[in-house]
């Protein structure tokens, strides 16, 4: 199929759409819309629209569809793979959802809320808390990330183990399709087997199949009581055994299970010395365990009993259990500060990967060997071990900088990604494909999957206007 | 788009495919392949193939694709909406997965198993149990239903509240696409954001977009201890309040929460008098609660504490808590015998519907009023109230038979479905669309959803050979 070249969103097109809605829908493109957190992509300025209603989004997309203008959906701008940045040079329509932040309806008795796509994730959490409920999706950028982006990238975070990814917390969607029609799929239903699941197709499509304008989100009851512990584990294999033991004991109450390597603790000491370290002597490996339990259980006691059993089994050598809410927060602060410490050190190459759970120990071992063969580096491997999702990040040794290794970045990335693929893993566990991993997707994906994705893209967006260049090459 | 008429699977086509593989792949079409449990559809005999490998499935589908022959994927034959029966008169290729029953691999330490699509659901459960794990999908037909069908229809059952539908228990798929290519998506990953989620598109597509040949299934740890109770509730609204209270107390440990109406208990007395009734006097409404809890809790005590709180709140008037494993089974036997009692009574019209949780009381009230206006009937309303999924079944009064009301069936169905739709519900909560509800889907679906489904179907199966007439009219 041959696709017509994209048309500029300026002059003719701009005049046409300005005539269709109030002038203040449009705004000047400031630098923030052309940048992304890792500074890898520089966007092309075009026409910036900040619609207030789904109908305005639909009108804008219909016009872009008619004219062949690229549409770049823009949420909180926190994506880490360049999905929010068009850099191909043809001025696009940047369509920001930032004004569509309404709570459309709250159904606390159902554990459901309907929100517009521009609502910030932290605000979703607050609305839920106000009803004595929780929206469990939690990630570092939750103060800026918006619902539409979170769903479009099927975001993960620390509570996936218990509550699932973004897709598992969404019951229904409203989407403006690539031709400007509106799919009203805002169902509040838990069970609904009426045809193809378009919701799951749109979630994770990174804005290439339509623009999510509203979502029906699933809330959960707060656990009756919560507890947190650090435990020093012998090695990653012991961490997996401890995970199985924890899940067996806690009856589904394991909310998070995070693996942390000594390198992360060293980076914290180096860059953020005020962060309290849990152990006098840093262990090689440790896990952060968070549980939320039923009434009648004391989480600290349950974690102590777990520690005893794990200790007898030779899985853990040391442990600290939070004795208060503030201590829990302190424990979590350590985990949450690791990405900031990483930023301050400056990685040569970062990898958001997943492998089958049982392959984790071998992956870490083989990865470290392969990196060592490429030169002297420090590896900080940490992450959501219960999901098989590791952030495997490679740093220069002390005295060197990332600039010294710029020429090796591609080699390192390729080495890690080849290994991940070889072990049945994924080169994008939770961040998505965006523009950063389009070539990786082509390299590592099953060819039938790629053909099928392309067929779906061409069927729903025949002009290729929706977030062109993201996920699939245009 | 105009589609060529289907071609018969006999004579020419049969000769061609017989030349491609061992003769014993093919078998005589017996009656069982042309019938379905409710006896509503009579299939057209064609060519029956029982391949042993994915490659044979692929070869057969590729040949059908080239020739324009319809392919009817056949699993356990337990579907309730005619999805497994081609009745349009052109002899199809009936492709039964019954010989592909292998356990390809077990990864107990990951909570994962890879099975072929022909494995019977009860066998999946056994394999999991043998490893001290559980596959929580549980439904009446589990002794005959096969994995491919269970996934293709996104089956539900009694444990959806805690563990999700079939789609939530599947990590990866192997699918023969409509052109005979094989998509190898058998990943064991918990997190994988690499492009469009084809897995979720195939699950619930009822064989119209490809044939699932193998699946990677997610297993769960058995809860440390389990408990079951019947509680008599004031009304459906009280049942919902009790559900919220139970979830709040049990920290995610509620495995099932089933609503049962007195009518179901009366049907049991009438048709299966040996089934033990829990209460001396049958309550108007009751719930069956099943919990699986963490170590350190006694489920019977936890349920007693729940009953006390609920009693004080005026939600429940009576309760019995299982004191042993065999009593738990007895309690469940009552629930599981309700469909059999229904069959013996003989419904005029059955409805597998869902509505938003908070709409359940109003739906039951309005439904009963509407049915009463159509004549004298008995309504047995029961189901998975925690999922908003009710089986709302309409029966003749004593002394009348379903045949007496045959002429009213369509009216009754329409009345119930219109009401469901009006209340934001779904006319197919867990059974799927099949051939039975194609017109309902057209009537009640969002038009943009239908257009999008059609575009996807045409893109992936341009000749319309895959299970033609199911889900979408050909």
UniProtKB/TrEMBL annotation, chains A, B:
This is Putative FAD-linked oxidoreductase. Belongs to the FAD-binding oxidoreductase/transferase type 4 family. Keywords: FAD, Flavoprotein, Oxidoreductase. Its cofactor is FAD. InterPro entries: FAD-bd_oxidored_4_C (IPR004113), FAD-bd_PCMH (IPR016166), FAD-bd_PCMH-like_sf (IPR036318), FAD-bd_PCMH_sub1 (IPR016167), FAD-bd_PCMH_sub2 (IPR016169), FAD-linked_Oxase-like_C (IPR016164), FAD-oxidored/transferase_4 (IPR051264), Oxid_FAD_bind_N (IPR006094). It holds the Pfam family FAD-oxidase_C. It comes from Nereida ignava. It comes from the Bacteria. GO terms for biological process: respiratory electron transport chain. Transmembrane segments: none annotated. One of its GO terms (molecular function) is oxidoreductase activity. Coiled coil: none annotated.
């Amino acid at each position: 199929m041959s696709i017509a070249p994209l048309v500029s969103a300026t002059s003719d097109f701009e005049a046409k759409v300005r005539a269709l809605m109030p002038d203040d829908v449009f705004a000047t493109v400031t630098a923030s819309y052309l940048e992304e957190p890792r500074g890898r992509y520089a966007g092309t300025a075009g026409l910036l629209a900040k619609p207030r209603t789904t109908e305005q989004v639909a009108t804008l997309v219909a016009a872009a569809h008619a004219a062949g203008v690229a549409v770049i959906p823009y949420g909180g701008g926190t994506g880490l793979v360049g999905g929010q940045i068009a850099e191909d040079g043809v001025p696009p329509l940047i369509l920001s959802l930032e004004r569509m932040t309404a709570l459309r309806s709250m159904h606390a008795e159902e554990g459901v809320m309907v929100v517009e796509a521009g609502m910030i994730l932290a605000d979703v959490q607050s609305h839920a808390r106000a009803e004595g409920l929780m929206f469990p999706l939690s990630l570092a950028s939750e103060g800026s990330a918006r619902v539409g982006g979170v769903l479009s990238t099927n975001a993960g975070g620390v509570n996936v183990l218990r509550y699932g990814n973004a897709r598992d917390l969404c019951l229904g969607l409203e989407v403006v399709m690539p031709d400007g029609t509106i799919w009203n799929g805002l169902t509040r239903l838990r069970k609904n087997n009426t045809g193809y699941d378009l919701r799951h197709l749109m979630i994770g499509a990174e804005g290439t199949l339509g623009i999510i304008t509203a979502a029906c989100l699933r809330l959960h009851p707060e656990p009756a009581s919560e507890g947190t512990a650090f435990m020093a584990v012998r090695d990653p294999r012991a961490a997996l055994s401890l995970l199985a033991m924890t899940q067996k004991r806690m009856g589904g109450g394991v909310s998070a299970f995070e693996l942390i390597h000594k390198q992360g603790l060293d980076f914290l000491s180096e860059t953020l010395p005020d962060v309290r370290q849990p152990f006098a002597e840093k262990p090689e490996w440790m896990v952060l365990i968070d549980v939320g339990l039923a009434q009648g259980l004391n989480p600290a006691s349950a974690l102590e009993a777990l520690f005893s059993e794990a200790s007898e089994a030779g899985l853990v050598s040391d442990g600290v259990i939070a004795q208060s809410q503030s201590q829990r927060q302190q424990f979590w602060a350590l985990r949450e500060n690791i990405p900031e410490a990483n930023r301050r050190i400056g990685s040569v190459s970062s990898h958001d990967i997943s492998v089958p759970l049982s392959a984790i120990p071998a992956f870490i071992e083989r990865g470290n060997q392969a990196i060592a063969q490429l030169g002297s580096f420090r590896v900080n491997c940490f992450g959501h071990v219960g999901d098989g999702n590791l952030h495997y990040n490679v740093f220069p040794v002390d005295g060197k900088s990332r600039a010294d290794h710029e020429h090796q970045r591609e080699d390192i990335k390729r080495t890690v990604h080849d290994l991940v693929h070889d072990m049945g893993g994924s080169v994008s566990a939770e961040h998505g494909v965006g523009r950063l991993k389009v070539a990786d997707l082509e390299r590592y994906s099953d060819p039938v999957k790629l053909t099928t994705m392309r067929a779906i893209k061409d069927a729903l967006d025949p002009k290729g206007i929706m977030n062109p260049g993201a996920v699939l090459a245009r």
